Amino acid sequence: DAQKSDARWRYLRARVLMKLERSDEATPIFASVAREANFHGFLAADWLKLPYTICPQQIEADPGIDKQLRRQPDLARAFEFFAIDRLPQARREWDFALSRLDGAQRKQAIVLASDRGWHDRAVYALNRGDDLRYYDLRFPLARRADVVRDARSAGIDPAWAYAIIRAESAWTTDAHSGADAFGLMQLLPGTAKHLAKQIGVPFSGAAALFDPDLNIRLGTQYLGNMAVRFDGSPWLASAAYNAGPDPVARWIDARDSLEPDFFIETIPYKETREYVARVLAFAVIYDWRLNGKALPLASRLPRIGQAYSPPPADAPRKDVVCPATPATPEVAPLSAPPTANARRSGF
Question: Is 168 one of the annotated active-site residues of the chain?
Answer without folding.
Answer: yes
